[in-house]
Amino acid sequence: MRTAVIDGNDRDRRTAVEVLEAIGEEYSAPGTASDGKAGYELILRERPDLVIMDIDLPKLSGLSMLKRLRAENVKTKVIILTEDRDFDRARKAIGLGVDNYLLKPVKRAQLKKAVLQTAAKIRDERALEHTFTVDNIFTGCMSGQLKADREFHRMTKEKYGFTLEEPGELFTVWLGGSYAEYGEEVRRILEYAGKENGISLCVIEADIWRMIGAVIYRPTGIQEEYRVFAERVVPLLCGRLRGEVICLWDRMERMDALMETLKKLRNLREWNLVFDRGDLIRPDDIAKLKVEPLKYPMELENRVREEVVAKKGEAIKGSYYRLYDLLRHEIYSPKQIRECLIRFNLSVLDEYRKVNIIGSELRIQHCLGEIARAVSWNRIRVAMEEYFSLLHWEAFGEQGDEDLSPLIRRAVRLVRKYYDHGITLEEAADRLFVSPEYLSTQFKKETGAGFKETVTGCRIERIKDLLRNSRLKLNQISELTGYSDPKYMSRVFKEEVGVLPNEYRKSGH
Hints:
Oligomer: single chain
Helix content: 55-70%
Structural class: alpha/beta
Strand order of the largest sheet: 2-1-3-4-5
Radius of gyration: 36 Å
Number of domains: 4
Number of strands: 10
CATH class of the largest domain: Alpha Beta
CATH architecture of the largest domain: 2-Layer Sandwich
C-alpha cells in the first residue's frame, strides 16, 4: 500500500514514517512533505493509497489541499493528525472524505491501529471493485444471487450511471443447435454494435437455453436502440449465421427483472413460426397479430394418402410443400401449426403402414415429438427429413429408374431426396461407398447429365413449382429449396431460366 506523510512538524513526520515501516515494508512511504503545496504536488505525482497529514500546514492548509484533490477526483484515503480541537474544522474534514481524525500527540499504537483499519477498508473496496462490474451485476440478476439494496443502487448510479430500479431494454438471440458454433461470434457482434453506436449494453449468456443477448442499461427512451438492432444488428446476424436465428426484444420496467424478462422471451420463441427469419419479434408485435382459426386441409390429406398408396415420392413431397404454403399464408398460432403438422403426419403414417413396414416406431415418435416442440421452421424441417428417411421415400421410384444400374438408381434417389440440401457429388459418393470420380463418370454416362447439373435442375424445378402453385415469399421458397440467401437463389434461377423468380411468377408460366 503506497502512503505519503505530510506534516510541518519534523518529529511528528518521522514518527508517522517509523510507524509505517514498523507495520511492514509494503507500507513504506514513497515520499514526505513539510508543507501543503509540496504535499499537493507529491500526491498528484505519486497517487498514494493513503495520506497521513496535518490540517495546519504552511503555504497551503490541509483543508484547502483536500478540497483541490477532491475537485480533481483524487480519492486517496486520508488520516488527519492535528492539535486543533475545533469541531467545525473536524466536521469539514470529514465532509471531504477523511477516514480518521486523530488528535496530537498521537500514540504509536493508536496510529498503527488507524492505518491497519484504513488498509483493511482499501482491501475491501478493491475486492468489491474487482467484482463490481456491469457484467457481474447482470450475471447476479440472472442467477438470482444479487440482492440489491439502497447502498448497492447508490454505488451503481455513482459508478455506471444507472440503477437496477430503472427501466432497460433486452435483446436476445436464440441459436438452437448452432449455439456452440456461433455463440462467440454473436457476442463479438453485439459488443461491437454497442461501441459503434454509443449504446450502453452488457452481453449476457443463457447457455442452458442456447440464448445470448444484450441488456441495454442506459436506454434513451426514444426507441433509438431498437432501431439500431432491427435495422443493423439483426440483418447482420441473419446474414452471417447459418441455421436457426430467432431475435427477440422487450422492455424491462426494472432491470432487476432481467431473469423474468428472459424467461418471457424464451416462451415467445414459438411465434417465430409466424414471423420471417430476420424479424425482430416483440411482445407488442405478437399482441397485434390477427390470428385466424386453422381449418384442417382434409382434401390435401386425402390426396397425399393416394400418393402414398401409389408410391409417388416426389408427389408426396409436393403435397407437403402445399401444406407448408397453407400454414404460412395466413396467421395461425404456433400451437395450431404444430397440431396440423402432427395430424397430417399421423394420417400419412397410417396409410404408409398399409403398404410398407416401418423400421423404427420409436424414432418416428421422436420425430413427431420434435415437431410438437418446434419453435422454428428449421426444427420442423430437420424432424420432417428424418421422418421421411424412416419411411424410406427413396424406395418410391420414378418412371425410367428401372433402366438405370443399381448404383446410379440409388444416386438419383439421393438427389431427389436431398437436392434441397444442395447435396454434393462427394457426399453422395461417400454414402454409396464409391469414389467421386467413378460416380461422376457413371452418373453422366447413364443419365446424360452431370451430378451437380442434376441437383441444380431439381432445385430449379421445385422453385418453379412453388412459384406457380404457392403464395410463398422468396425467402420462404429459398428455405424450402436449400438456399440460405434468397438473393443468391434468384441469381441462380435467372442464370438457369433467363428471368428472375418474381418475373417468372408474374408471367403465369
